[in-house]
Design a protein that fits this description.
The chain is built from nine helices and eight strands. Bound molecules: 2'-deoxycytidine-5'-monophosphate.
């Protein structure tokens, strides 16, 4: 039986993990799991269905029943294209709040593990190396200060045509708030696995970070 390769890339918001995970998956010919998109899709679905999120006991069932498909670059939630809608700050914030509820995490766990298929998987998230794929051959944790990540996010927002860009200080404050929420939750908090390699990529381009992860994979991932 061949070993299923899993490379876990975790990190906080705007750490570049999404772009790096996509580039690494493409270079290796592996599948890609954007686990944040799953949490975001669940949050959007709760908003659409006006789910009473204080009914904790039903959340696991709701999460398991989530109607979600990835079709190429598209994310389809409840049968409709939600690719852009799941990326809004409001949906991200609700995703972060819901992701602190154990029933939600349990309900979404198997859906994430099902992405692990031959020849391999690059999994991007907050707890890929700690909870979802603890046996991953390589675990990388990308990080940079909230200020550096705030500038990145600010520049992204400034470039996107449809958004009015909030002041930089507000973007940094939102990033800190999300970091605090993701780090302080009792279940699967945002933290590097004990055997993760932490890369502070403040001074790296996304190409350099991608090259560094690929080099680590060549060294340790086989
Ligand atoms: O990576 P992202 O910003 O798209 O994730 C949105 C939120 O989902 C994030 O603030 C916390 C939650 N999340 C999580 O708890 N565990 C993951 N593996 C991925 C995301």
């Amino acid at each position: 039986m061949s070993i299923l390769h899993v490379l876990a890339i975790d990190g906080p918001v705007a750490s570049g993990k999404g772009t790096v995970a996509r580039a690494v998956a493409s270079a290796l010919g592996f599948h890609l799991l954007d686990s944040g998109a799953i949490y975001r899709a669940f949050a959007l679905s709760c908003l659409q269905k006006k789910t009473n999120v204080s009914e904790i006991n039903s959340l696991s069932i709701e999460a398991k029943a989530l109607s979600l498909e990835f079709s190429g670059e598209l994310v389809i939630v409840n049968g409709a294209d939600a690719t852009n809608e799941i990326r809004t700050e409001a949906v991200g914030m609700l995703a972060s709040q819901l992701s602190a509820i154990p029933e939600v995490r349990t309900g979404l766990l198997e859906r994430q593990r099902a992405f692990a298929r031959a020849p391999g998987l690059v999994a991007d998230g907050r707890d890929m190396g700690t909870v979802v794929f603890p046996g991953a051959q390589l675990k990388v944790f990308l990080t940079a200060t909230a200020e550096v990540r705030g500038v990145r996010r600010f520049n992204q927002l400034a470039k996107s045509a449809n958004a009015t860009t909030p002041p930089l200080a507000q973007v940094v404050a939102q990033i800190r708030q999300r970091d605090d929420q993701d780090k302080s939750r009792p279940i699967a908090p945002l933290q590097p696995a004990n055997d993760a390699i932490v890369i502070d990529n403040a001074l790296q381009s996304k190409h350099e970070t991608t090259a560094a992860v690929l080099a680590l994979w060549a060294l340790r991932g086989r």
